[in-house]
Amino acid sequence: MESLEYIDAYFGGEFPPEEASRFEKRIQEDPGFADEVAYYLGALSAAREANRTERKKRFRELYKEGAGKGRTATVRRMGSRKWLTVAAAAAVLGMIVLAWLLYMRPADPARLAERYIQQNLASLPVKMGRTDRLQKGIDLYNSGKFTEALRQYEGLLRSDSLDLTALNYAGIVSLRIENYDKALDYFIKLQHHTDPRVNPGLFYEALTLLRRNYAGDSDHAKQLLRQIVEKELNKKADAQELLGKL
Amino acid sequence: MAIRGSNSEKDWQIIGLLRQRGVDKRKGEESLFNEYAYFIRDGIRKHRLSEDEAFDAYSDSVLAVIESISSETFQGNSSLKSYLYKIFHNKCVDLFRKNATNKNSVNRALSIDEELFRLSDKSRSILQTLIEKADWKVLKERLEQLGDDCRRMLLLWSDSYSDKEIAVVMDYKTANVVKTSRLRCLAKLRQLYHIE
Q: What is the 3-state secondary structure (H, E, C) of chain A?
């Protein structure tokens, strides 16, 4: 007991330096005393271990308790109701994004023009009873033979450079074969030679610009389309539709 | 001490409780344990530990944090969550490596390091040799055989409670009475240890 008290005083920091030195010397010279110090430290260690074990036991109970209440390991997990709310919100958000992508997002000009071409210029109207080069060109166009159709219209234009129908069809065929510069030439010529209220040159120029979609083409096309709408030119309804999607 | 991190108010509450004694400290320990108990799932999922292993790693980490706060080695350079997670993660990695290489249990540093390092190298070496020879398992068993009061007193002492604090917690008249009783308990434990 006495030595325990002495040892306890040392580890309690109660000794002045000289006494601490004496304490150390005793450990080194007195094996019985060293044994006592080792026991003291061993008891301290055993008590600390017991303390840890006891606290871990308490933690284990808390953990089990929490698991029973549906928390602990899942403390931060969301309840199924919360998940449902989150899932519903995600679904609504998804629908909004989808709707925006499908209906509200400004369309890509080239894609918009291509869609218009597929819907409205897939075939040219057949003129009943006609068997001339113009009609042959239409037949070739409707068969998908665009290069040959263009050859027919260019032949016609060589003999009459102001053949407005040939200019129009030559422009459309050029657009289909993606020769946009040529298409623009034909459509611009078409505008210069007829009343814009009856010829579609301005609209097709805008359509070609949209389809080509070079830098600035889209803005230029919008200006032309607005002009068609404001001045109530040919294909006003189509121009309005395209503007609404741009 | 300023604590970095988004949960500093909660951290302060827990740290405040952990720096108390008795019931408050216990509340702090439980709050800390509960607050981040979901780490256990991380241990299972990310480190492929069993639930028991992940629980052990987490409890040991919580105890390490409690120890750091009590001894004021926790500087508040990170949030409690980050600090705890770092310790927990390292323990999980140790356990995973142990599992992968089939080694024996992860060595835990002697819990009396602090006391041993007060001594000179020579004295420490003598004591370490003696400590290594001792049968600690028996000593732990004997500790369980002590009366409740004795056991409790020694556990509080091992948790760095001063005699004055033990007097308050265990309702003793003075710190001197506690000191005498505690040393008697230590002597009694030694007697039990030497029987056999």
A: CHHHHHHHHHHCCCCCHHHHHHHHHHHHHCHHHHHHHHHHHHHHHHHHHHHHHHHHHHHHHHHHHHHHCCCHHHCCCCCHHHHHHHHHHHHHHHHHHHHHHHHHCCCCHHHHHHHHHHHHCCCCCCCCCCCCHHHHHHHHHHCCCHHHHHHHHHHHHHHCCCCHHHHHHHHHHHHHCCCHHHHHHHHHHHHHHCCCCCCCHHHHHHHHHHHHCCCCHHHHHHHHHHHHHHCCCCCHHHHHHHHHHC
CB pairs under 8 A between A and B: 135
CATH number for domain A109-245, candidates 2.60.40.1120, 3.40.50.300, 1.25.40.10, 3.40.50.1000: 1.25.40.10
The answer to ipTM > 0.85 is: no
Which of A1, A45, A77 is opposite residue B111, by nearest beta carbon?
A45
pTM of the model: 0.53
B40 and A39 within 8 Å at the Cβ level: the answer is no
In terms of CA atoms, which chain A residue is nearest residue B146?
A: A47
Q: Is B112 a member of any domain?
A: no
Task: Give yes or no: residues B158 and B92 share one domain.
Answer: no
Q: Are residues B13 and B86 in the same domain?
A: yes
Query: In this predicted structure, what is the pLDDT of residue B105?
Result: 43
Note whether B111 contacts A: Cβ–Cβ < 8 A: yes
